[in-house]
Amino acid sequence: LCRAGIGEITLIDHDTVGESNINRQLVATYSALGKPKAEVMAARLLDINPEVIAKPIIARYEADTREQFFGTHYDYIVDCIDLVSCKLDLIETAIARGIPIISALGAGNKANAEALQITDISKTENCPLARVVRKELNKRGIKHLPVVFSNELALKPEDAEEPPPGRRSIPGSLVWVTATSGMLLCSHVVTELIKESLTAGVNQAE
Predict the structure, then answer these.
(1) How far apart, in Å, are the Cα atoms of 105 and each of 81, 94, 134?
(2) Cβ atoms of residues 26 and 42 within 8 Å
(3) pLDDT, tens only, 115-136
(4) Distance CA 57, CA 5 (A)
(5) What b/e readout covers 73-109, taking b as 16+ CB neighbours within 10 angstroms?
(6) Residue 137 to residue 61: CA distance in whole angstroms
(7) pLDDT tens across 151-176, in order?
């Protein structure tokens, strides 16, 4: 997004860089271990474009703290939340406030980057996260949402370590899958913002 010319980016993440992130995340290097991901990424954005306005927020988005994230104007929201309850609240809140949003769905245990696509959530298949989100959004009267998802059937990775409390397993991830997902999210956002800008220019001219 920064390299594509977006001038102001708010980065929200409560986590710190861990060694297990190094296989797939841009912020994850050994020199960044233990540092807040949002701050590491903000510093990288400024290194790419010193004029960008990068706002790191080290916090978890959830319903109880929702308002602390909406004290600024957003042209577009990119939802990459894993926790379903928080994901649903962000989607519902963005739609209620008229803010365009696109959501990333499950990339874990997927290996084929070519299976990733941008579509409406009503057209998703073979994605457990999509199924749950689609069902819960339907309950809230939300039938349509642009998403990036893969219709590849999930693989079963080898259990190399014990999952953390509350999780049955740790999904495997591959850098070309997560990176492609991110690029598709970026392409959608930038394209939509350009369309909106052109439309506004036409209306202004009229």
Answers:
(1) 9, 17, 11
(2) no
(3) 999 999 999 999 999 999 999 9
(4) 21
(5) eeebbbbbbeeeebbbbbbbbbbeeeebbbbbbbbbb
(6) 18
(7) 999 888 776 666 555 556 678 889 99
| Total residue length of the chain | 206
What is the helix (H) or strand (E) element at residue 55, kind and residue range? strand 53-57
Give the DSSP letter string of 5-38. Answer: T--EEEEE---B--GGGTTT-TT--GGGTTSBHH
C-alpha to C-alpha distances, 3 to 51, 120, 180, 188, 189, nearest whole angstrom: 12, 26, 16, 15, 13
Closest by Cα among 106, 183, 185 to 151? 106
Put simply, whether the predicted model's pTM sits higher than 0.85 gets the answer yes
8 A C-beta contact, residue 90 and residue 101: yes
- pLDDT beyond 70 at 28: yes
> What is the Rg, in whole angstroms, of the alpha carbon atoms belonging to the chain?
18
